[in-house]
Design goal:
With 174 residues, this protein is an alpha+beta fold. The protein folds into two domains: 47 residues; 102 residues, no CATH class. The chain contains four helices and eight strands. Strands 1, 2, 3, 4, 5, 6, 7 and 8 form an eight-stranded antiparallel beta sheet that branches. Strand 6 and strand 7 form a beta hairpin. The chain is elongated and about 65 Å long. The mean pLDDT is 92.
């Protein structure tokens, strides 16, 4: 069996995609719950089940992220908005933890994929104009200190460097 490198790989940790839900799974759900399945595969009942399962999975994954001790750290969000008039870089934002950062990144979007990628969290947030892309990194002690000093001194925008961030662990390898 091949050993998986959880420090340097890219792994999907959260999605709102409905891909991967099989009609056979729905039929099994119906059988287990004494439900007579509709005659058509593309029925409203099946689609309601798919979206319900998607929502349950999303909330379960967010609960895992919220409860992870190593993800309850100040993080830096960087990225770009994919809008109708092109791509626009955002000003870096500091948030209290990974879950709040993800919520902030996907708040006005239709669907999303959230990846762990080599110590950072990458968010693809899809909306009617395009795709917003964000990277979430943990702030190092130096980064937190620079942020606190800038905030206390009323400095609005600061340039963060690689020394201001550190790796996050992969959620499911902790």
């Amino acid at each position: 069996m091949e050993k998986i490198d959880y420090k340097h790989g890219k792994f999907l940790i959260l999605t709102t995609s409905i891909d991967g839900f099989k009609y056979e799974d729905y039929l099994e759900f119906c059988e287990d719950n004494g439900i007579i399945p509709p005659a058509k595969k593309d029925s409203n009942e099946y689609l309601n089940w798919v979206y319900g399962e998607r929502d349950i999975n999303y909330e379960s994954d967010m609960d895992n992220i919220r409860s992870c001790k190593q993800y309850k750290v100040k993080v830096l969000i960087t990225g770009e908005l994919g809008l109708w008039d092109g791509t626009h870089k955002i000003m870096p934002v500091v948030v209290n933890n990974v879950a709040d950062a993800i919520d902030k990144c996907v708040s006005s979007c239709d669907d999303c994929n959230v990846w762990y990628n080599d110590g950072a969290i990458e968010v693809e947030a899809y909306h009617h104009d395009g795709t917003n892309r964000f990277t979430i990194r943990s702030l190092s002690a130096k980064g937190q200190d620079r942020y606190e000093r800038a905030t206390n001194n009323g400095i609005g925008e600061i340039e963060f460097t690689n020394k201001d961030t550190k790796r996050l662990p992969y959620l499911y390898s902790i």
